[in-house]
UniProtKB/TrEMBL annotation:
Any Gene Ontology biological process: glucose metabolic process
Catalytic activity: D-fructose + ATP = D-fructose 6-phosphate + ADP + H(+); a D-hexose + ATP = a D-hexose 6-phosphate + ADP + H(+)
Keyword Nucleotide-binding attached: yes
Gene Ontology molecular function: ATP binding; D-glucose binding; fructokinase activity; glucokinase activity; mannokinase activity
EC number, UniProt record: 2.7.1.-
Family designation: Belongs to the hexokinase family.
Positions of the Hexokinase C-terminal domain: 209-455
GO cellular component term, pick one: cytosol
PANTHER family: HEXOKINASE, HEXOKINASE TYPE 1-RELATED
Organism taxonomic ancestry: Eukaryota, Fungi, Dikarya, Ascomycota, Pezizomycotina
Domain Hexokinase N-terminal: 11-203
Protein name: Phosphotransferase
Keywords: ATP-binding, Glycolysis, Kinase, Nucleotide-binding, Transferase
Functional pathway: Carbohydrate metabolism; hexose metabolism; Carbohydrate degradation; glycolysis; D-glyceraldehyde 3-phosphate and glycerone phosphate from D-glucose: step 1/4
Length: 491
């Protein structure tokens, strides 16, 4: 390893390292911001009430649609909740979210989504009289919800920047697009993927307390008592009434009080569509990990006295967001000592013929970025558990980074042990089950969204109309579901 590259590796290790002390400091600030977000004044973390006010019991039945609008794909699911506790049947279709939609118009966005739903209905139910199918709409963007069947977009995230949508209720224009196409769907619940993840996981696991997403973006949801939600005090819901809170914790530390941002994090924030927002997310979410890697390599390449990618064409490396988190995953997964697969990856993706020492630096950089991201995610989990006084529980997690990034789960678990001071064995190895376990979640944006819709109609049937806007339409849908359930029982 040449001395100049070895020095760069040491510098990067120092730049991206996060000590146990720093993790604890971040967690303490996180707890404070969680509390602040629940007050009438609010804070950086929105802490949005979702009007999802119960966990599933397992006896929910009926056919429901689920729509998941993510940052990359659009997914439509039809889910049949059966009488078998915790059982369901599912059919689904996936549609690519065109990049041009992300900076287009609201009318184009809702029209495209309605077209996808129309295609799905026509393909699976051609010629059938369906009535009004209740839809659980997974809208994974910060939204203020005074009603579970409506929501006002606070701000776009995940690279979206569509004018005229922020600050407005997203359901009416969406339902208008459905109506124009004569698609028989009624939005029963607008939900977030974290809420869906929590509900879907709780459907099969009674110890589930938190739902998390670690993917293109990052977020968490948990069940709070309304007595703790100062911003809802005027509604007199009863202090022990449960309410899932969609934290939108990507906005943690927007004031830059504790997060150890590097010069590269500052660049990502400055050049993003929303500078000064989503500070936490920009350090841990899949959308930004590849860009962070690219910025570091480009900086080293232009560093005086450092020879990396010498006499190579780095024009592709200069293009923002040309790399994503899967690029880093592939580097970490390279099983060969001579990093053959990483070499081929650089040739294929960046047209760079990298030497072995350069590849070793890239490998170490990918590890450092991945380790930092995983360790920072543990702070949010620890903060919620600390706030609620939970010393043991399950956390359901979903998303591409959690599920596919090498060693992410182990790195996150280790950081949790450090933050919460769990005892370790004398040899430093962990030999027993963690009291707080982060587990792979059930399908939150599909099954979870359908369950939220089912729980909403169940609540309407029981006469609990708190947080319900379109009472008449949902009462009709609830009555249809009641009849459908009776028919299923007879059959």
């Amino acid at each position: 390893m040449p001395a100049d590259l070895r020095e760069q590796i040491l510098r990067l290790e120092d730049t991206f390292a996060i000590s146990t002390e720093t993790l604890k400091k971040i967690t303490k600030q996180f707890v404070s911001e969680l509390y602040q977000g629940l007050t009438p004044e609010g804070g950086d973390i929105p802490m949005n009430p979702t009007w999802c006010m119960a966990f599933p019991t397992g006896d929910e039945t009926g056919t429901f649609l689920a729509l998941d609008m993510g940052g990359t794909n659009l997914r439509v699911c039809e889910i049949v909740l059966t009488e078998e506790n915790g059982e369901f049947e599912i059919i689904q279709s996936k549609y690519r979210m065109p990049e041009e939609l992300k900076s287009g118009t609201g009318e184009e966005l809702w029209g495209y989504i309605a077209d996808c739903l129309q295609q799905f209905i026509e393909y699976h139910h051609e010629g059938e009289n369906l009535g009004k199918l209740p839809l659980g709409f997974t809208f994974s963007y910060p939204a203020t919800q005074e009603y579970i069947d409506h929501g006002v977009l606070q701000r776009w995230t995940k690279g979206f920047d569509i004018e005229g949508v922020e600050g407005k209720d997203v359901v009416p224009p969406f339902e208008e697009a459905l109506k124009e196409r004569d698609v028989p769907i009624k939005v029963a619940a607008l939900t977030n993927d974290t809420t869906g993840t929590l509900i879907a996981s709780a459907y099969t696991d009674p110890d589930m307390r938190i739902g998390c997403i670690f993917g293109t973006g990052c977020n968490a949801a948990y069940m709070e008592h309304c007595g703790e939600i100062g911003k809802l005090a005027h509604m007199k819901l009863g202090k022990d009434t449960p309410m899932i809170i969609n934290c939108e914790w990507g906005a943690f530390d927007n004031k830059h009080a504790v997060l150890p941002r590097t010069q590269y994090d500052v660049i990502i924030d400055k050049e993003s569509p929303r500078p000064g927002q989503q500070s936490y997310e920009k350090m841990i979410a899949g959308l930004y990990l590849g860009e962070l890697f690219r910025l570091v390599l480009l900086d080293i390449h232009t560093h005086e006295g450092v020879k990396i990618f010498e006499d190579q064409d780095v024009s592709k490396l200069r293009k923002p967001y040309t790399l994503d988190s899967s690029f880093l995953s592939a580097i970490e997964e390279d099983p060969f000592e001579n990093l053959t697969e990483t070499h081929e990856l650089f040739q294929r993706t960046l047209s760079i013929d990298a030497k072995k020492p350069e590849l070793e630096l890239c490998r170490r950089l990918a590890e450092l970025i991945g380790i930092r991201a995983a360790r920072l995610t543990a702070c949010g989990i620890a903060a919620i558990c600390t706030k609620k006084g939970w010393s043991a529980c399950h956390v359901g997690a979903d998303g591409s980074v959690f599920n596919k990034y090498p060693n992410f789960k182990q790195r996150q678990a280790r950081a949790l042990r450090e933050i919460l001071d769990w005892d370790t064995a004398e040899d430093g190895k962990w030999k027993r089950k963690d009291p707080i376990e982060v587990l792979a979640a059930e399908d939150g944006s599909g099954v979870g969204a359908a369950l939220v819709a089912a729980l909403t109609l169940k609540r309407v049937q029981e006469g609990n109309l708190a947080g319900i806007k379109d009472e008449k339409a949902l009462k009709e849908a609830a009555e249809e579901k009641r009849k459908e359930t009776e028919e299923m029982k007879k059959a």
